[in-house]
Amino acid sequence: MELWNLYQNNYLIVFVFLCLGVILPVVALFLGKLLRPYKPYDTKYTTYESGIEPFHDSRVQFNVRYYIFALMFVIFDVETVFLYPWAVAYEKLGIFALIEMLIFVFMLVIGLVYAWKKKVLKWI
Amino acid sequence: MTLSGEFLAFMSLALVAVIGGVLLLNLTKVVHMVVALVFTFVSIAGIYVLLSAEFLAAVQILIYSGAITIIMLFGIMLTRHNDTSEPKTGRWRKLLLFLGVLGFAFAVYIGIYNLDLPAAPNDLHVNNTEQIGIELYSKFIIPFEVTSVLLLVALIGSIVLAKKDDEKEAEKE
């Protein structure tokens, strides 16, 4: 138990790094705000469009197609997560686990093939 | 309850999680909301670490603060965002909501105040991932395979839904 506490105390370093990661951009942006001159006028804030007067909102609605990419990323991410404990415990599980995992991966390959056939993977 | 480091860590993590959730509801810009949500997810991962479920913590970071956040951002980009917020609701509704929240809090308090869960001796912290692997792939095979079917259904379902829109757009053009 002593060793375990010692081990968990190491998470303090993780915490310190997490804090650094949060604080660094905040401080950098804040210092930038202090240092830079601030003289706003309208023409400065317009989008540069080769000298043509910009119109409409610059933010457009994205195509649904990109959402499928994100979703497929999530699904294969979940698959990877299942692969980790399998790989770690593989020595103790034997050949049956291999078959299980092959079935699992095969299921998702079906999905991938379906996506491929439907031409979802095409980047236009 | 003594004031130990673990208690302190749990309290701060829980606080960050709750504040993240409240900010998610109260902020006006959607991207800020997503950042608040990431804070909630990361602090929940910290709570998993406190419970010595380290693999689960890593998965929480990987799936939730990585992938789910991305999918939410995509969802935001897909919708029209004109940043118009709903008009504020009336005072009566707020009061009723507050009463509801109080009642819920009271019920939960009564439920958990005298709840005594005997701490089962476990050795979760020794080779956490390997333990999960052995349990998952020897005892829970069927749920695991059903999970793959679920993932497949999600993938194909999303493709069917999104592709249909695509064809309609192609017809329009």
TrEMBL record, chain A:
<dbReference type="GO" id="GO:0050136">
    <property type="term" value="F:NADH dehydrogenase (quinone) (non-electrogenic) activity"/>
</dbReference>
<protein>
    <recommendedName>
        <fullName>NADH-quinone oxidoreductase subunit A</fullName>
        <ecNumber>7.1.1.-</ecNumber>
    </recommendedName>
</protein>
<keyword id="KW-1003">Cell membrane</keyword>
<comment type="subunit">
    <text>NDH-1 is composed of 14 different subunits. Subunits NuoA, H, J, K, L, M, N constitute the membrane sector of the complex.</text>
</comment>
<dbReference type="GO" id="GO:0048038">
    <property type="term" value="F:quinone binding"/>
</dbReference>
<feature type="transmembrane region" description="Helical">
    <location>
        <begin position="66"/>
        <end position="87"/>
    </location>
</feature>
<keyword id="KW-1133">Transmembrane helix</keyword>
<feature type="transmembrane region" description="Helical">
    <location>
        <begin position="93"/>
        <end position="116"/>
    </location>
</feature>
<dbReference type="GO" id="GO:0030964">
    <property type="term" value="C:NADH dehydrogenase complex"/>
</dbReference>
<keyword id="KW-0813">Transport</keyword>
<dbReference type="GO" id="GO:0008137">
    <property type="term" value="F:NADH dehydrogenase (ubiquinone) activity"/>
</dbReference>
<comment type="similarity">
    <text>Belongs to the complex I subunit 3 family.</text>
</comment>
<keyword id="KW-0520">NAD</keyword>
<keyword id="KW-1278">Translocase</keyword>
<dbReference type="InterPro" id="IPR023043">
    <property type="entry name" value="NAD(P)H_OxRDtase_bac/plastid"/>
</dbReference>
<dbReference type="InterPro" id="IPR000440">
    <property type="entry name" value="NADH_UbQ/plastoQ_OxRdtase_su3"/>
</dbReference>
<feature type="transmembrane region" description="Helical">
    <location>
        <begin position="12"/>
        <end position="31"/>
    </location>
</feature>
<keyword id="KW-0472">Membrane</keyword>
<dbReference type="Pfam" id="PF00507">
    <property type="entry name" value="Oxidored_q4"/>
</dbReference>
<dbReference type="InterPro" id="IPR038430">
    <property type="entry name" value="NDAH_ubi_oxred_su3_sf"/>
</dbReference>
<dbReference type="GO" id="GO:0005886">
    <property type="term" value="C:plasma membrane"/>
</dbReference>
<keyword id="KW-0874">Quinone</keyword>
UniProtKB/TrEMBL annotation, chain B:
<keyword id="KW-1003">Cell membrane</keyword>
<dbReference type="GO" id="GO:0008137">
    <property type="term" value="F:NADH dehydrogenase (ubiquinone) activity"/>
</dbReference>
<feature type="transmembrane region" description="Helical">
    <location>
        <begin position="55"/>
        <end position="74"/>
    </location>
</feature>
<dbReference type="InterPro" id="IPR042106">
    <property type="entry name" value="Nuo/plastoQ_OxRdtase_6_NuoJ"/>
</dbReference>
<protein>
    <recommendedName>
        <fullName>NADH-quinone oxidoreductase subunit J</fullName>
        <ecNumber>7.1.1.-</ecNumber>
    </recommendedName>
</protein>
<feature type="transmembrane region" description="Helical">
    <location>
        <begin position="140"/>
        <end position="162"/>
    </location>
</feature>
<feature type="transmembrane region" description="Helical">
    <location>
        <begin position="6"/>
        <end position="25"/>
    </location>
</feature>
<comment type="similarity">
    <text>Belongs to the complex I subunit 6 family.</text>
</comment>
<feature type="transmembrane region" description="Helical">
    <location>
        <begin position="30"/>
        <end position="49"/>
    </location>
</feature>
<dbReference type="GO" id="GO:0048038">
    <property type="term" value="F:quinone binding"/>
</dbReference>
<dbReference type="GO" id="GO:0005886">
    <property type="term" value="C:plasma membrane"/>
</dbReference>
<keyword id="KW-0520">NAD</keyword>
<feature type="transmembrane region" description="Helical">
    <location>
        <begin position="95"/>
        <end position="115"/>
    </location>
</feature>
<comment type="function">
    <text>NDH-1 shuttles electrons from NADH, via FMN and iron-sulfur (Fe-S) centers, to quinones in the respiratory chain. Couples the redox reaction to proton translocation (for every two electrons transferred, four hydrogen ions are translocated across the cytoplasmic membrane), and thus conserves the redox energy in a proton gradient.</text>
</comment>
<keyword id="KW-1133">Transmembrane helix</keyword>
<dbReference type="Pfam" id="PF00499">
    <property type="entry name" value="Oxidored_q3"/>
</dbReference>
<keyword id="KW-0874">Quinone</keyword>
<keyword id="KW-0812">Transmembrane</keyword>
<keyword id="KW-0472">Membrane</keyword>
<dbReference type="InterPro" id="IPR001457">
    <property type="entry name" value="NADH_UbQ/plastoQ_OxRdtase_su6"/>
</dbReference>
